[in-house]
Amino acid sequence: MLNRKEHPRPQLIRKKWQSLDGEWDFAFDDDNIGLSENWFRKLPATHKILVPFTYETERSGIHDTSHHKIVWYQRSFEQAEDKNRVLYFEGVDFETQVWLNGSLLGTHKGGYERFSFDLQPYLTKGTNTITLRVEDSLSCEQPRGKQRWLKDNFGCWYVQTTGIWKSVWLEEAGNQRVNYLKLTPELDLDLLKVEVELKDAAVLPESKSYYIEAEASFKGELISYHKGLFHHNGSNFTLDTRVKENADSGTHRWSPHTPNLYDLTVRLYTQTGELLDEVYSYFGMRKLSIENGQILLNNRQLYQRLILDQGYWPESGITPPSLVALEKDLEKISAMGYNGLRKHQKIEDERFLYLCDEKGILVWTEMPSTYVFNDVALEQFTKEWLEIVKQHYNHPAVITWVPFNESWGIKGVNEQARPQHFTEGIYHLTKAIDPNRPVITNDGWEHTISDILTLHDYEETGLAFAKRYSDQHDFATHGYSNKEKILNNEIQFNDGWFAFAKGFSYRGQPIMISEFGGIAFTVDNEGQWGYGSQVKNETEFMERFEKIHAGIQSIPYITGFCYTQLTDVEQEVNGLLTADRKDKVDLTKVKEINERRVNFSEMKIENNF
């Protein structure tokens, strides 16, 4: 049985792989002399660094939080057989050049998606040396997420991330191999649609034929088999997902209550029967849909209780310190009664997504933002986002795509045509890849075309929530503009934001409060902050927490919420947990509030799963 938790890419595993995480040679290149002095042949290392932690972090062994534009890495590995190996990088921020034994393998631009290089023809028996040159900047044109672009932290932006920040590994694989699997559940038909992409399929010789073999199983029982010819640069087929032991529907559904996962093995053969490749994957059978202003999971109403999760650790920045750390975060989330999370401004380690698949925790995938809008930013954002959608597509836990947040990187979207066209284009490109998941174009406000109307509201009282959202049509049409606000029992007016950008209007989409709360608790030092007035103790915290949840839960048409946030992050101290994951409040009380049933005049919020 393969251990999916250990492999950096649990959705497509080969048995023969080798982790390259660990100690590498490292050097700063502040004078940009490395290329001219051929550091790719022999690196004059000044440091040792523990990959995949960046030099800014304590876990790296360097812990220098100042910005260095260019950094170099080097390490060796042994090759015993004359077989091709593929070098994979899960994430390197930002512009990367890679050499093997002094020969350039290639380049990559982007901080968040996976990329790889074949090591032939430069791979030799014996010792081989990999060298990286990584160039990062403080440019706001590149997707930054929560990485600061100034010298010091400010607001909700934190220490930058430079270089390798996710796992690196080698796999033994042939020149012709399975490059990608796209797995689409058709729950109502009890079928899985499988699309197989081969490496360089477009240049396959016409004289060569390949066969694809696929086996789907559930808890060790073979339930479906396929073998067919690979043709037209792709191989598309379906697998029956009905299991004999399941007399009700035949198919074991994936949901937060029943996170059932099927195993999938795919093999590639030549026409004469030679096995070229074998990969292992998995899938979950679930259906997402929207009807009458409600989000449905497996044809049942889904009320989402999400928590905003930025995925930062004091000792390791945005790189998880360990698999155990990821599991503990998810255990805390479940213990507090949340059925999902919004991974905020970060593309998380795919092992985290596997754990969410396994544990039944819903995930919103959100793209790290740029902070200017021009052609350079537009092109880089689009390239990275579409690759991320492709790489996260098969995870059943991922239920929503969030390309933009709070108009970051799309300044002027409320009134100007160009950023509006950009958001519409990203929406349609995302839906072209994945027509089944909801896409939120601008989480928070000023939506253009969007499958869900999501709102960010850090009001401090439940009364204000209940009053502001009492009229669904009025709010969805006008947003915050000229809406009254209740603060300290006095009515005030707030110009605020519009729910939709000009030229766009509400069309009956589900409505969610996708950021709220953010209660500042235990602010000890100057520069620390949270939303609204600071509370002084747990009693004050829980009183405010309870009331703002009651305000949202009392509104029948709201289909869910996302509380800010799971943990404190650097100067931001509005987590339910401290930055080092200690409970700040009684988690059982949080769970009771999240999971309580609230009686409405016409409906109830039910814990459907």
From TrEMBL:
Q: Which residues cross the membrane?
A: none
An example of a GO molecular function for this protein is: hydrolase activity, hydrolyzing O-glycosyl compounds
Q: Which Pfam families match?
A: Glyco_hydro_2, Glyco_hydro_2_C, Glyco_hydro_2_N
Instruction: Decide whether keyword DNA repair is in the record.
Output: no
Does Hydrolase show up as a keyword for this record?
A: yes
| Domain Glycosyl hydrolases family 2 sugar binding, first and last residues per copy | 18-170
Q: Which domain of life is it from?
A: Bacteria
Which biological process terms from the Gene Ontology are attached to this UniProt entry?
A: carbohydrate metabolic process
How far does the signal peptide extend, from start to end residue?
none
Ranges where the Glycoside hydrolase family 2 immunoglobulin-like beta-sandwich domain occurs: 178-286
User: Which UniProt key words apply to this protein?
Assistant: Glycosidase, Hydrolase
Checking SUPFAM superfamilies in the record gives: (Trans)glycosidases, beta-Galactosidase/glucuronidase domain, Galactose-binding domain-like
Q: Where do the Glycoside hydrolase family 2 catalytic domain residues begin and end?
A: 289-593
Q: What's the family?
A: Belongs to the glycosyl hydrolase 2 family.
Q: Per its record, how is this protein called by name?
A: Beta-glucuronidase
**Species of provenance:** Enterococcus saigonensis
Highest classification ranks of the organism: Bacteria, Bacillati, Bacillota, Bacilli, Lactobacillales
